[in-house]
Amino acid sequence: MSLSFYRQFLFQSKGSYHIYIGEGYSGPVQPQQHEFYHCTYITEGQILENQLGKEFLQGAGECFFTPAGINHSLYIFENTKYFCLSFSKSIADILFSYFQNLRRDFSNLPPIIKLTEKMQHRLCLCLHCLLDEQDYDSASSFEIGHFLTISALIIMLRDSYSTCYPPIPLPTPTKENYAVQIQRCIQHIDTNFDQPLTIDELVQISMLSKSTFYKAFEQYTGMSAKQYLAEIRIKQAIQLMSIGHIPLNEIARRVGYDDFSTFYRNFIRIKGISPAQYRNDFVLPTSQQ
């Protein structure tokens, strides 16, 4: 039974992928084409690939892709060891959804993809996991081979693809772009102003990067998140001043300030006068009317 027939048989039995390690053979592999895609990652030695009449000599730490329906042949040199990963159109569709500028014949990528040592290490770990997973029951709902296949393909492609197609910058934060995320943060502040809130907590709630959060929050509210929190706390403190004669240090604690001096400084910065003076000038005269 030929290697090609053996691989096709196993590939069909698995449904969406097949992987094997090639070693111990040197010499030509006759021209062939398949209905599925496959890629080859070389760990030792060299392979000469002929695809569409063009020859490329691939070495250790390099990988190459063969599209579906393309006639190709190989010459495998002595002492060569490699992974060959075949994958179906359904896997390819997912892959191309990640790399949207990538042509389905891979013609807009370098014919030889050289991986860094770090990427080689990650790829080998992923491929060995995939080899083990291949023996798992394909009918099980816990079979994860297709996820590992996509992960391995992404590891092979992402650095080369990113060089050819740098990522598109995120849109400049505006009220419209991140309104939902910032409204979620504002609601959290309005509800939990009396708790020890942190910027990192708000960043997590927004699910934005810290730098994007800072810009988006200021675009949406006209002030920083820290300033917004202080404004809410001082507003609530003024409301508490009108309820009987609650000591100012207790008011500070109720609106989220463990440190009275911070409450005092923020009150003066926002209202222009001290809390005590504000109570005497504005709150007490109103309550005596």
What key attributes describe this structure?
Jelly Rolls; disordered N terminus; alpha+beta; 289 residues; rod-shaped; 4-stranded antiparallel beta sheet; 18% strand
CATH superfamily of the largest domain: Regulatory protein AraC
CATH class of the largest domain: Mainly Beta
Percentage of helical residues?
40-55%
Rounded average pLDDT: 86
What global shape is seen?
A: rod-shaped
Count of folded domains = 2
What Rg, in angstroms, do the CA atoms define?
Answer: 31 Å
The number of distinct β-strands equals 9
* Main sheet summary: 5 strands, antiparallel
| Beta-strand share of residues | 15-25%
**What strand order characterises the main sheet?**
1-8-3-6-9
User: Termini distance?
Assistant: 102 Å
Helix-strand pattern:
HEEEEEEEEHEHHHHHHHHH
CATH topology of the largest domain: Jelly Rolls
Number of helices: 11
Low-confidence stretches: 1-14
Oligomer status: single chain
What is the CATH architecture descriptor of the largest domain?
Answer: Sandwich
Structural class designation: alpha+beta
Describe the structure concisely for a colleague.
The protein has eleven helices and nine strands. It is an alpha+beta fold and 289 residues long.
Layout of secondary structure:
Blueprint: H1 3-14, E1 17-22, E2 27-32, E3 37-44, E4 46-51, E5 54-59, E6 62-66, E7 72-76, E8 81-87, H2 89-98, E9 113-114, H3 117-133, H4 145-164, H5 179-192, H6 199-206, H7 210-221, H8 225-241, H9 248-254, H10 260-271, H11 275-288
Antiparallel strand pairs: 1-8, 2-7, 3-6, 3-8, 4-5, 4-7, 6-9
